[in-house]
Amino acid sequence: MTLLQMLQETNPDALTIDGHDSALIGIGGQFGKCLAVYDRAKIIDNLIAMGMTAEEATEYCAYNIDGAWVGDNTPIIVDLW
User: Fold this and answer.
1) Most CB contacts within 10 A, which of 36, 66, 72, 80?
2) Is 66 buried (19+), middle (13-18) or exposed (0-12) by CB count in 10 A?
3) Which strand ranges, in their side-by-side order, compose the sheet holding 24-30?
4) Are 43 and 37 contacting, i.e. CB atoms less than 8 angstroms apart?
5) Model pLDDT, residue 6
6) Distance separating alpha carbons of residues 54 and 44, to the nearest angstrom
7) pLDDT score of 52
8) CA-CA distance, 28 to 43, in Å (whole number)?
9) Is 77 left (phi over 0), alpha (psi -120 to 50) or beta?
């Protein structure tokens, strides 16, 4: 079973980030819900691979992904240190 399949089984309403399955690193909990957890650096790497510069990808991620609240099932974005 894949991580995405486990997420869908635990919370069918959990939202994911289109085009960034490779950045999905786990399932996290918030207020009693299981949510998708993504690695910010991998998202930025994916955006660069799609043709953005590092600066554009970082800015796009900050505004359009980190800054997006789409309800209680919004994915969690983490920085791994």
Assistant:
1) 36
2) exposed
3) 24-30, 33-39, 76-78
4) no
5) 94
6) 7
7) 98
8) 17
9) beta
What does the pLDDT profile of the chain (81 residues) look like in tens digits?
A: 899 999 999 999 999 999 999 999 999 998 889 999 999 999 999 999 999 999 999 999 999 999 899 999 999 999 998
74: tokens are 């919004």
Eight-class DSSP state of 15: -
28: left (phi over 0), alpha (psi -120 to 50) or beta: beta
Between CA 1 and CA 5 the distance in angstroms is: 6
CB 48 within 8 A of CB 54: yes
SS3 61: helix
